[in-house]
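Researcher: Please predict.
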Amino acid sequence: MSASANDPVPGPSDLAYIRFVSVENMMKLVHSIGIETMLRDLARYIEDDFRRWEKFDKTPRVASHSPEGVIELMPTSDGEDYGFKYVNGHPRNTKDGLQTVTAFGLLARVDTGYPELLTEMTVLTALRTAATSAMVASHLAPKGSRVMAMIGNGAQSEFQALAMRAICGIDTLRLYDIDRAATEKVRRNLTGQGFELIPCATPEEAIEGAQIITTCTADKQFATILTDNMVGAGLHINAIGGDCPGKTELHKDILIRSDVFVEYPPQTRIEGEIQQMPEDFPVTEMWQVITGAAPGRINDRQITLFDGVGFAIEDFSALRYLRDKLKDHPFYEDLDIIADPDDPRDLFGMIQRARPR
């Protein structure tokens, strides 16, 4: 017998709810786990997923560009779970007191298509970006690296510093930004956190004595943050500022002298430093280094360069990590977001029974 409009309205089933992590709960989770522990954990999840790279759907992110910035969707699946991230990049936002980057993401089951997790990813992206940088540096940077130059002291800086310390042992930061207030912000935030902090007046001063150089500036344009004559032998360059067509930070001669490592070449050739180079410019994919299929650092004079633009699999790793952690931490809400009628063929009847009486 079919249900009538007078029948009681059934409550949502368990399948109607998914776990939702707000910004407030994400910050609680970070403090509960500890930020450096979380960065190490994320790096391990990301490395594990790079080891099973061939299992994933891979596609360059879907981007909508405007003069003001870019809005992107970053999807992937390993055949069991599907994840995507919505993210923007609007460098001019800071002039209006807004974030340059905001993001949220979703993880769903492939077998049913039902979502499992919806979460803020502005904070989580900062964490996963730093974890990826440090994970890559653990394979490519000179052994015993202790000094990092951080050129561009925006929202990502402190995360990069903490990840590089937790995973690679960095303890000295040489800081430069065209905006001295940004450098002062980093100095203030990281004072008392175990770093030697050295504000610098120029990029040239910042890279003195550094074994790792991280470039992370926000301007959406072709720029030359590092010139060829600034880069000596034996360095690792963590070039993470490039993330869209028309935006670079390194002179192309640096790329010619370096062994360049990337996440996913079809995306990096569009968005990364290597957009300056011919289509056949040689690069090595990081999953190949991690699995032993290709060499990473091979000698002390080699310049290794990670042309990191961010790839969907890293976000998938972060979503997978968060889902696992929520089994042991209560920092989420149950969000009634999936219509799940008692009779899956009777969606209209569910609406009718909810009519106010």
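Model: The chain has two domains: 14-123+313-349, 130-311.
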